[in-house]
Design goal:
By secondary structure, this protein is α/β, with parallel strands linked by helices. The chain has two domains: 1-31 and 80-120 and 166-240, Rossmann fold, CATH 3.40.50; 33-74 and 122-159, SIR2/SIRT2 'Small Domain' (2-Layer Sandwich). Helices cover 32% and strands 18% of the residues. It contains ten helices and nine strands. The chain has helices spanning 3-12, 24-27, 49-52, 55-60, 62-72, 82-92, 107-111, 137-142, 168-180, 230-235, and strands at residues 17-21, 96-101, 116-118, 121-128, 134-135, 155-159, 183-187, 208-212, 224-227. It has a six-stranded parallel beta sheet with strand order 3-2-1-7-8-9, sandwiched between helices. The protein has a three-stranded antiparallel beta sheet with strand order 5-4-6. The longest helix is centred in the C-terminal third of the chain and has 13 residues, at 168-180. The chain is elongated and about 60 Å long. The model has no long low-confidence stretch (mean pLDDT 93).
Length: 240
């Protein structure tokens, strides 16, 4: 039995699956990741990308922050891939209970997923720091310099920057889903970014599936390891 066939058997016999994913889920939609050879962190900029995506940089160099953010963080034309659609289908069939993602692109919802926990926020939501009015990503893209609300407040992306804390309520929801899951599928993540990567510590089952192009520090914990494209792997799964 191949590994994909093993995954098929696990999914076919389970009604309580949770998916935890990272940047690798979206690279197949044309959105670059951070740590690969061609990733954001290996490109040359005036400042290190980690610093440019920090709260300190946002506060001190707002104009440069938004210039970088518009060019490198928003991909308006990106479309969901086979992985996104399969997860949405699994949810529609009642098998998948939640998608927990480190991505900020909103592609899971675009594919049809309803229960999506975005640990790091979303580029599709932006809010005025003064009056809390929300704006979509087009507002940011079409603005110049530092985007501002009609009230005069700065419109900040609803994403978690470096030095900022993850939303406690979202973390608790994610932990609740993972701790109750019969099957936890982890895909497209190197499992090195904390605290998000620590989420799998709360899984109590014996069907931990790891799908990634490269090995991760947590491979030894997996009950089924599949090395390859998350879209290609999930695209072979039939939902009945």
């Amino acid at each position: 039995m191949t590994k994909v066939e093993q995954l098929q058997e696990i999914i076919s016999n389970t009604e309580n699956i949770v998916f935890f994913g990272g940047a690798g889920v979206s690279t197949e939609s044309g959105i670059p990741d951070f740590r690969s050879v061609d990733g954001l962190y290996n490109q040359r900029y005036k400042y290190p990308p980690e610093y440019m995506l920090s709260h300190t940089f946002y506060a001190k160099h707002a104009t440069e922050f938004f210039d970088f953010y518009r060019k490198k963080m928003i991909f308006l034309g990106a479309q969901p891939n086979a992985a996104h659609y399969k997860l949405a289908e699994l949810e529609q069939k009642g098998k998948l209970k939640a998608v927990i993602t480190q991505n900020i692109d909103g592609l899971h919802q675009l594919a049809g997923s309803k229960t999506v926990i975005e640990l790091h926020g979303s580029v599709r939501r932006n809010y005025c720091e003064r009056c809390k009015t929300f704006f979509d990503e087009k507002f940011i893209l079409e603005s110049t310099g530092v985007p501002t609300c009609s009230c005069g407040g700065v419109v900040k992306p609803d994403v978690v920057l470096y030095e900022e804390s993850l939303d406690w309520d979202l973390m608790q929801k994610a932990v609740a889903y993972i701790s109750k899951a019969d099957v936890l599928i982890v895909g497209g993540t190197s499992l090195v970014v904390y605290p998000a990567a620590g989420m799998i510590d709360y899984y109590r089952g014996n069907k931990l599936v790891l799908i990634n192009r490269n090995s991760t520090p947590n491979d030894f914990r997996g009950n089924l390891l599949i090395q390859g494209s998350i879209g290609e792997v999930l695209g072979q799964i039939s939902v009945v």
